[in-house]
Amino acid sequence: MAVLSTPRSAVQLASKGTPVREHLFRTLLIASLVVAFIFMVALLSYVFVEGWPRLDSRLWENMPSIRNPDIAGAQSAITGTLWVISLTGLFTLPTGIAAAIYLEEYADKTRWYNRVIELNIQNLAGIPSIVYGILGLGIIARTLGLGFSVITASLTLGLLVLPIVIIASREALRAVPPSIREGSLALGATQWQTISRQVLPASIPGIATGSILALSRAIGEAAPLLMLGAVSFIRFNPDGIFASYTVLPIQIFNWISQSREGFHVLAAAAIVVLLVILLLMNSVAIWLRNRYQKRW
Predict the structure, then answer these.
(1) How far apart are the C-alpha atoms of 245 and 222, rounded to whole Å?
(2) Which domains, from first to last, does the chain contain?
(3) What is the pLDDT of residues 73-115, one digit of tens each?
(4) Which residue from 180, 160, 175 is spatially nearest to 96, judged by alpha carbons?
(5) pLDDT tens digits for 145-200?
(6) Which listed residue, 126, 196, 200, 203, has the most CB atoms within 10 A of its CB?
(7) Best CA proximity match to 228, nearest among 213, 247, 215
């Protein structure tokens, strides 16, 4: 009597070499991560070691000096950075999130102008930052008459990172399961009630992450601010949105351009301060993400 054997399925045959490929792919990913981590540790170690002699209260209590690096500080640059990035977030985040809600929840995808808007947003995210500096110089500073002030820098950096906020917010809204929307609408809620009370809270972790990444890019930009008259030597703190200003990237660029070694140490210490500000911003994003992930 012949014994009938069940043939292997096509899926089993196709997946015969899968473990080898998966192992190779995982090895390549781990190797890439290790290389990136090594470079990051080397860079951070160099900056900390180089700037350690000036990581004291003089750095954030004293004003800059063009003659004596021993008494020079970065108080005006730190204050200007906080002014500029705070106003940038104030202008960008509500506008970007509102635009993402419209495009994802309300816009008719069949309309040609909505498709044009989406295409332009994606293209604007890849434009070099110096182009936004020229735009801010020609329109915001001169045409609108705002001059070389804090608000001009904030609006320009806001335009720079606005496409990133919109794209990240749309992806976060798109990741919310459709069943949440359908269940809310089925219970009699309006579309806005569904978005504001169900969809938006569920998407806050992704929106917060994308927003902080966008602001992290803005806080490190120097090229557009050079076009907007960010002064590298200011011995006073901004006292309003129309005041003159400087920021840490401009101050670091100025110090690293000096010939004396003491200014190079100051530049490294200022980089550490900038990294601390970035770390605090990312900590806020992580806190928001963890808080809302527990709810949802």
Answers:
(1) 13
(2) 74-292 (1.10.3720.10)
(3) 888 899 999 999 999 999 999 999 999 999 988 888 778 888 8
(4) 160
(5) 888 889 999 999 999 999 999 999 999 999 888 888 888 888 888 889 899 888 98
(6) 203
(7) 247
